[in-house]
Amino acid sequence: MRTQKLCTGAVLLPALIIGFSFLLACAEGGLESSPDTGLVPNGSNGDLDAGDTGSNGGDSDVTDTDTDDTDAGTDTDLDTDVDADSPECTDDDDCDGEMVCHDEHGCVDCLDDSHCDPEGDAACDVDSNECVACTGDDHCPGSHICDAGPDSPVCVECIVTEDCDDALCDGGSCVDCIDDDDCPDEHECDADTQSCQGCQDHDDCPGFCQQDSELCVECLGDDDCPEQDRCDDDGYNCHECLENDDCDTGQVCASELDLSSGDPMYFCAQCEQDFHCPGDSWCNAEYECED
Known about the structure:
Elements: H1 2-29, E1 31-34, E2 38-41, H2 58-85, E3 100-102, E4 106-108, E5 123-125, E6 130-132, E7 145-147, E8 154-156, E9 168-170, E10 173-175, E11 188-190, E12 195-197, E13 208-210, E14 215-217, E15 230-231, E16 238-239, E17 252-257, E18 264-269, E19 282-283, E20 289-290
């Protein structure tokens, strides 16, 4: 009988210890369901990897963290879009200096001409909302015109030669010449002033320099001509006569065109017209009276 009680106690004591341990584990963390092991205490199996962990395992925590990060990133993008679309200003007081508020473009230089400097860039380009020199001829002084061009608009004298009076258009300005071919004989095109220039003093000429026309001429006065020849005030050439009194009695001062120079030549002759001849005689091609 004593022996039977000892055996029964030996069997029950370990069972009670195991049961107590089991209950203690349940009280601390509860039970988890595992497809491989059935119900096990939370954290009791240190060998389980993340793949075997249940719905409360590490993967769920990682997933939650990623979701939070994604949400945070989405919120940041939305905030940026809102800031980008938000207006820079609501009225002119929100803009620096003399800038004005545009409903769509924010702070700009101008909305119309009144916002530009009438003494400088007086016109408002409504496409760029910037003050420019001109947008039309009415913004330019005098006879100047507005050249939109490939760069910033600018007021100029001309765009094409047709815009100039008796001059050439070069770089927006009306000039006398661009090269020597644009100048009359004995003149050269001055590259600095783009004007035709001839002689400056007598040393530049074989004869004399006529200062007003800057042309080299044969004479400037009668004293520059040989013998009793006269110097005409138009072409500055020496002639035998300029009027009838310069010729002998019975002669007249006749003239004809010098085909080489295009200038008139004056000389003394018996006649120039038929009425210079007596009676029924007439004046021939040699300026002589013929019966």
